[in-house]
Amino acid sequence: MKDRPGRTSLTPFPLVLVALSVALSVALVGCRPPEAGGGARAADADVRVRVEAPPDPVVGPDTVRVLVLADDAPARDATVEVTGDMTHAGMIPIVADAHPDDAPGTYATRDFAYDMAGDWVLTADVTLPDGRRGFGETTVTVARP
Amino acid sequence: MSRVPLPQVAPPTGGGRSGPFVRQPRGPDLLAIPGLRRFLRWRYARLTLQLPLLILAIFVIVDGLTGRQLAPRNVATTATWLHYRGLVVVALAILGNAFCGACPLMLTRGPANFVKRRLGIELRWPDRLRNKWLVAALLVGVFYAYEAFDLWASPWLSAWLAIAYFASAFAVDVLFPAGTFCRYVCPLGNFNFLFASVSPTQITAADPDVCRSCADKPCLHGRETYADPARAPGERAFVPLDDVVHANGEGSFPGCETNLFVPTMTSNMDCTSCMNCVRACPYDNVALTVRSPGWELRQAPWRKRWGLPLIALGVMMLYWGLLNAVAMIPPFYDLARGLSAWTGSRNEPFLLALVFAAFTVGGGAASLAAAVTADAAGGAGLHPRRALMRWGYVFVAMGFGFWAAHYLFHFLTGAASIVPVFEHFFAWRGANLDPNWALARWMPSRWMFPISAGVSGAYALLAAYLTVRIALRDFPGTRAATAMWPMLLFVVTLTALQILVLAQPMEMRGTLLGPAG
């Protein structure tokens, strides 16, 4: 690299290391990432959603259950959409509707199937008849069959 | 703008040298495409190419820090780990190091120069770091971090990685001469430099004799051209306006950021495709020449420049690329659990470090053994360094093939997902948009293996071709045939391994040891 005449010319090896360390460690600085469910489409505070997946899921069909409470009571006639996303970008999500199950305020998917082993994030997007919305999320690790 | 006839630049006569400085490829000049040279000489050409990537980087940082922390739905993870990586290998394979040319990190140079002027000093990059060892360490650090911190799954960390790149470019540019960051620090840039060795284009001198007669070498030193020479600050070679035949206006035209002299270039290494040389040359004598993908590697240009650190980095990229793909298939998780049982440790960073060490040492040893065996079979004796410097280029071609196959797999799997991801970006912030995630199903899954295996196989063929050419170049008579066979065997074996990896079902896990880990 050319050194311009009239400029200071040093060999600051420690200084270089310090500068690089400071610059690269910027990536490790900071607080926590945003909480799930934030953003402009945040849930209504009085709508609570819990997503339940059976333990030890494997690749193939599975049932995801969603419990919806509105004003601390089971919510009926809600529209519930369950989405499964893998943790890697570019993977195609699985989207399925959840329908009322046996217990009040409980909804279950009928045609939901994991298509790959690995880590999944299951999100339930709930809309009540009066327009209020709620979101729930859980993570599962799907094994090979 | 003044235009005057080209001065006499005929080669010296009476025993003076003429002809090429070094052997450069002699293919068609892409800058002869109507309008392209004119565009590249335009003052704002590079900015025009940088702005889209700068805007994308802003989206990456904003969504990564404030958006939904779900990788497939965030611009930070999707644009970085899917689109950027995929398009980089496509560009390298078809066009060249276009991404360095359009690198938005270099937009920090203006502010950096401002701060540098205030500081009034410019430090000299230390001699002991003027090689590719630091970059090799930074590259393996990035690959390790990618696995250890699950960067593919974290928009937050992906955004901070982008910020760290910008901060590093700024910091290095403030303290050191322009080009230092690209040449000695940037892991992304050096990934591109390394694999631009298989690119089908290279900057060359259209007529070496013009360069020989050129007094100021503006492509290297830069050029200042003014009607009134008194206006020239004098930091670059001053070329009188009368000497300029194809002036792209008055002003200051920077030379090569990384200190490359066009007529002596035998490699794309360190060429950022900034096209400063095209702008600075007053004779329009810089060409973007089309060459064969194996041209550079069979010339062995790194023997004279950068030497062992670079060839070692080139070889190791093959195995780090293999690990990058292996880490997504079932046998890797079985291996990790076995390693955990063997060491009695469930510490994932430790286990991952062991895996990296195994691939680095094992891969390096296997390549060295193949190279030494080939040399010995050809009768060249046992000189490990010489053998690696001779045959190492073969592994570079294979390495690019596997990186390209892996990145293309991801890119083609979900390229169109960028549309719903951007829709989600705005929907997350209140826009009335309903992202169509079905768009992500852009290419049928059954096409993925044939495409990725085809890419890997194509570059394995290139590696085999290089093996034959190197053997014929360096070994006389029948020794060439005996020398090439160990390397050909190695290429075939490694290709089979690569295709086996690509054929495995993919898993996406954020842990080495599974849910119980």
Short description, anyone?
The complex is a heterodimer of chains A (145) and B (517). Chain A is mainly beta and 145 residues long.
Roughly what is the average pLDDT of chain B, rounded to an integer? 89
> Main beta sheet of chain A: strand number and arrangement?
8 strands, antiparallel
How helical, in percent, are the residues of chain B? 55-70%
Biggest beta sheet attributes of chain B = 3 strands, mixed
Helix share bin of chain A: under 10%
Shape of chain A: flat
The quaternary state of the protein chains shown equals heterodimer
Q: Give the strand content of chain B.
A: under 5%
Taking all Cα atoms into account, the compactness measure Rg of chain A is 24 Å
Distance between the termini of chain B: 69 Å
Shape of chain B: globular
Task: Present the secondary structure layout.
The complex is a heterodimer of chains A (145) and B (517).
Chain A: H1 13-25, E1 47-52, E2 60-62, E3 65-70, E4 73-74, E5 79-86, E6 94-100, E7 106-109, E8 112-114, E9 118-127, E10 133-142
Antiparallel strand pairs in A: 1-3, 2-8, 3-4, 3-7, 5-6, 5-9, 6-7, 9-10
Chain B: H1 36-41, H2 45-66, H3 75-94, H4 98-101, H5 109-119, H6 133-148, H7 155-175, H8 180-185, H9 187-195, E1 201-205, H10 208-213, H11 218-221, E2 223-225, E3 237-238, E4 251-253, H12 276-280, E5 286-290, H13 295-299, H14 308-326, H15 330-343, H16 348-377, H17 384-414, H18 418-428, H19 448-474, H20 478-503
Helix pairs in contact in B: 2-3, 2-7, 3-7, 3-17, 3-18, 5-7, 6-9, 6-14, 14-16, 14-17, 16-17, 16-20, 17-19, 17-20, 19-20
